[in-house]
């Protein structure tokens, strides 16, 4: 429902841009044939098509080197018809992720991974913000959840979710703790949290269970895994007995992430074309 509203706004913005003779374009870069990554990129391309955003997908061999991938990024940076660049992560282990993502032109960085955009995010002045954290914040705002003074536990320390989300929630006056695989007394820390954001995505290593959640806590489940052929998140089914809010998996944060990618692409288009299209 929330993702649908964002997508509808994006669709209207795309129509506005096209009426000015500008076609928003997202270039995706996928290296190798990781099944999950292939699926994610396919879904993103399909979502772009539905709102009228043009896409160019560069599906490259897994043998590609860091240097070769940087050359591709350079070409996309210089292409005036490309407004957004998305490098699907994770990259193969032999490729330096930091070098590759750092080379993306900041105004085309729809995942907010460049040091420049991360810095703007820290100062709370970024126009392009990371898709999954932005989707989470959008959900909190939609349901009028005031984060001021809330104790938040984020179980993830990646540059895609945990670190940027912690900054965004700090800007909303929450008190934030980032937990991870080396955190001690994780269950105890979760029980003290008003809001738990779990983004592990591996049930063999972690499951958020009912005894780790205090009454009426808000649980945002970002994890995604497959157990016995069924897609599941980090939270066990019985967490819903304790939580006041629990995002579903599948659904919930996933569609919000895609919706925010669409929004970022339109914002990137307006930045690169020097056009103010207002709130998307």
How would you sum up this structure, described in words?
This protein has 280 residues and is α/β, with parallel strands linked by helices. The protein has nine helices and ten strands. The protein has two domains: 2-108 and 255-273, 3-Layer(aba) Sandwich (Rossmann fold), CATH 3.40.50.10860; 131-249, NAD(P)-binding Rossmann-like Domain (Rossmann fold, 3-Layer(aba) Sandwich), CATH 3.40.50. The strands form three sheets. A five-stranded parallel β-sheet has the order 5-4-6-7-10. A three-stranded parallel β-sheet has the order 2-1-3, with helices on both faces. The chain has a two-stranded antiparallel sheet with strand order 8-9. Helix 7 links the parallel strand 4 (151-155) and strand 5 (175-179). The two termini are 16 Å apart.
Number of domains: 2
Overall CATH architecture of the largest domain:
3-Layer(aba) Sandwich
The CATH superfamily of the largest domain appears as Leucine Dehydrogenase, chain A, domain 1
Give the low-confidence spans.
none
Widest β-sheet, arrangement of strands: 5-4-6-7-10
Shape: globular
Count of DSSP helices?
Answer: 9
Separation of the first and last Cα atoms: 16 Å
Mean pLDDT: 96
Roughly what fraction of the amino acids lie in strands?
15-25%
Helix content: 25-40%
Beta strands, count: 10
CATH topology descriptor of the largest domain: Rossmann fold
| Radius of gyration of CA atoms, rounded to a whole number | 19 Å
Task: Please describe the biggest sheet, giving its number of strands, its sense, and whether it closes into a barrel.
Answer: 5 strands, parallel
């Amino acid at each position: 429902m929330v993702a649908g509203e964002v997508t509808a706004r994006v669709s209207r913005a795309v129509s506005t841009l096209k009426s000015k003779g500008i076609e928003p374009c997202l270039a995706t870069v996928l290296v190798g044939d990781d099944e999950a990554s292939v699926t994610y990129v396919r879904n993103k391309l399909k979502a772009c098509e539905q709102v009228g955003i043009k896409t160019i997908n560069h599906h490259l061999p897994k043998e590609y080197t860091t240097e070769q991938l940087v050359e591709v990024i350079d070409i996309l940076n210089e292409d005036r018809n490309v407004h957004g660049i998305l490098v699907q992560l994770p990259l193969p282990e032999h490729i330096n992720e930091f070098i590759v993502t750092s080379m993306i032109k900041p105004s085309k960085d729809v995942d907010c991974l460049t040091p420049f955009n991360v810095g703007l995010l820290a100062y709370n002045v970024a126009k392009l913000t990371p898709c999954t954290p932005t989707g989470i914040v959008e959900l909190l705002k939609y349901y009028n959840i005031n984060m001021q003074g809330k104790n938040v536990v984020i179980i993830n320390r990646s540059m895609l979710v945990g670190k940027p989300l912690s900054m965004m929630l700090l800007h909303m006056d929450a008190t934030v703790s980032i937990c991870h695989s080396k955190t001690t007394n994780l269950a105890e820390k979760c029980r003290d949290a008003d809001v738990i954001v779990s983004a592990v995505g591996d049930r063999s290593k972690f499951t958020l269970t009912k005894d780790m959640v205090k009454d009426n806590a808000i649980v945002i489940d970002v994890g995604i895994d497959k157990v016995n052929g069924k897609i599941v998140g980090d939270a066990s089914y019985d967490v819903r007995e304790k939580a006041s809010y629990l995002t579903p998996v599948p659904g919930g944060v996933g569609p919000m992430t895609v919706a925010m990618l669409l929004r970022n692409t339109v914002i990137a288009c307006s930045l690169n074309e020097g056009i103010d299209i207002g709130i998307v």
